[in-house]
Amino acid sequence: MERDKHFILGIFDDEDILLSAVKEVRAAGVKIHEVFSPYPVHGLDEELGYTRSRLPIAAFLFGLLGTTLALTMQFYMMKFDWPMIIGGKDHAAFPDFIPVTFELTVLLAAFGMVGVFMISSNLKPWAQPRIFDLRSTDDKHVMAIDIASNGSVDLEQIKSALKNSGATEVNSKSFE
Amino acid sequence: MAQASNYNLDQKFDFTAPVKKVIFFLGGLGAVLLLIGIIAAAFGGHHGAGEEGGHAFHWTKRLYANLWINNVYFTGIAIIGVFFFAIQYAAQAGWSTALLRIMISFGNWLPIAAVLMLATFFIANHDLFHWTHSYIFDINDPEYDRIIDGKGNFFYWPMEKGSFPIFYIVRMVLFFGFWIFFFNKLKSLSLEEDINGGTSYWYTIRKWSAIFLVFFAVSSSVSAWDWVLSIDTHWFSTLFGWYVFASWFVAGLSAITLVTIFLKDQGYLEMVNQNHIHDLGKFVFAFSIFWTYIWFSQFLLIYYANIPEESVYFIERLSSDVYGPYIFVNIVLNFVLPFLVLMTRDAKRHNIFLKLVCTLIIFGHWVDFFLMVQPGTLGHNGGLGLMEVGMLLVYGAAFAFVALSHLSKKNLVPKNHPMLEESYHHHI
C-alpha cells in the first residue's frame, strides 16, 4: 500500500484521554502519523516522542549572518568605499556600528526563522492543506495513523487499540 | 493525578552547621583579605601622599568607598527580592509560587543595609561626596563651584547650602523606611496566609504589591541619583536610575537563581523542577541583555555627541590605567558570558551552567558598581585589590547568612497560596 494516502483516525473528546491514548497506542507498537488538536496540548510532543525542534539553531546562524553582514557592510562603506568623518570620529568607529548591527541581527534572525519554519512545515502559499477531520478545528482531537507505515500491524488491531484507549470514534480517511 | 499536596508543604529549610560553616569560612576569608589589604594600604603604599598639592590620600578613603559600593550593591539585591516578589503578584503569576519565600527572604537585609548606609554616610561623607564640603557653596572661597551650587538645593533644601544635607538624609530614611515597611507588610501577609488560608490574602498582597511597585519606580531612580550619581556631582545622565536598577535586577535575579539551585541541591523544594529553573534562567538571560542595552544607550549617546561635560565620565574610566580594563571585564561578564552561555535551552535547564554564570554575574555587577563609585571618589588611587575582594566576601557572606537564617524560620513554600497547584504543574 502507498504511504501517506490511507489513514485510520481516532477521534478524542478529552485531552487527558488523548495523552494516555497516545502512550497506549505507541506502546501497542503502532506508529502515529500526526495528532491534530484545536489548541496546544501540554506534553503532547513529549508523548509523541518528537525530538526538539532545530529551529533555534537556524535562528542563531541567521543572526550570526546578520551580524557579519552588518559589520562587513559598514566597515566597507565607512573605511574603504566612501570614508567620511562624522562627529570627529575615526572612519571605522566601531561603537557607531552597533545599532545597525543589532537591527540587522534581529531582522535576519527573525526572517530566517520564519522562512525556515515555512519551508520545513511545507507552508507555501499554494499548498493545499489536507483536512483529516474538520472537527479538529473545533472541539475534537484527531489522531491520524498511516496504514502503510504500520504494514506489520493488523488493521483490526490498530482499530481496537484506538477504541480501547478511549477514542469516541474510529474512522478511515483516504486522500487522492 | 499528581498534586502539589502530595508533597510535604510544611517543609522548612534546615540551616545546618556545615552550611553555616561554609558561609563563615567565606566571610572569615573575606575579613582576612580585607585586613591584609588594609595593612598593605596603610603601611605599604604612600604613593598618594602630597600629590599635585592636593589632599594626601589616606587608605581609609578607599575603605569607605568600598563600604559604599557594597552598601549600594547589597541594598539593591535585597530590595530586588521584594520587588520580584511584588511583580509576581502584580502580574498574577502562578509559576513562581514555590519560589516566593526565597525572593522575600532577601528583604531581611534591608534594615541592616539601612543602618550601614546611614552610618557610612555620616562617617565618610566628605571622602565620598564632593558636594558635602561647605566651601564649594561659598562664593568668596577660591574653591567655589557654581555648578554644584546650582544643584545644592537637591541635597540641602530647606536648609542653607553647605550646612546639613537634610533633604538627602530624609530621602534616604524615607526610602529605607518605606521599603522596610512594604517588605514587612508583604512578608507578614504571606505568612498569615500559611495559617489562615483562603484567597483574600492573595488579593490583599496584590494590592500592597501594586502600591509598592509605584513607590519603587520612583524611589529606585531617585536613590540611584542620590547614592551613586551624586558622587560625580557635575556629571548627569537621564537614564542613570534605569541603569542602576538594571544592574540591581540582574544581580538579584542571579542571587534568587543561585539560592533556588542551592536549595534544590540540598533536597528541598521537591515541587520545583527544571521548568522553574529554566524560567529563572530566561530572566537572567533577558535582563542581562536589558542591562547591556541600557549601558550601551548611555555610552553611545555620550560618545557620539562628545560634549565635554558628559564625556568626561567615560574618559575618566576608559583612559585610566586603573579602571580601563574593568570596563571590558564588565561587558564580558555581564553581557558576552550570559548571552553566549545561556542562549540555549539546555544551558538554562542544567544547574551547572546557571551556577557558573550566576556566580560570575554577581561578581560582574559588583564590578559595575565598582566602576560607578571608585573613579569619582578615589581617582587614580583606587583599584580592585585584596581590600575590595575581601569586603565583597564579607558583605556577601553576611547577606547570605541573614537571608538563609530568615528563610529557615518559616515554611519554604506558601502552602495556602491559591496558585500553588499551578506552580506545581508549570511546564514549558
Notable traits:
heterodimer, A: 176 residues, alpha+beta, 4-stranded antiparallel sheet, elongated, B: 428 residues, mainly alpha, 16 helices
SSE topology string of chain A: EHEHHHEHE
Report how far apart the termini of chain A are.
Answer: 13 Å
Query: Structural class per helix/strand content of chain B?
Result: mainly alpha
Could you give the count of β-strands of chain A?
4
Q: Which stretches of chain B are low in confidence, meaning pLDDT under 50 for 5 or more residues running?
A: 48-54
Q: Biggest interface, which chains?
A: A-B, 12 and 11 residues
Instruction: Output the structural class of chain A.
Output: alpha+beta
How much is the radius of gyration of chain A in Å? 25 Å
The biggest sheet of chain A amounts to: 4 strands, antiparallel
What percentage of residues of chain B falls in helices of 4 or more residues?
A: over 70%
Shape of chain A: elongated
- Average pLDDT of chain B, rounded to a whole number, is 93
Alpha plus pi helix count of chain B: 16
> H/E element string of chain B?
HHHHHHHHHHHHHHHH
Mean pLDDT of chain A: 92
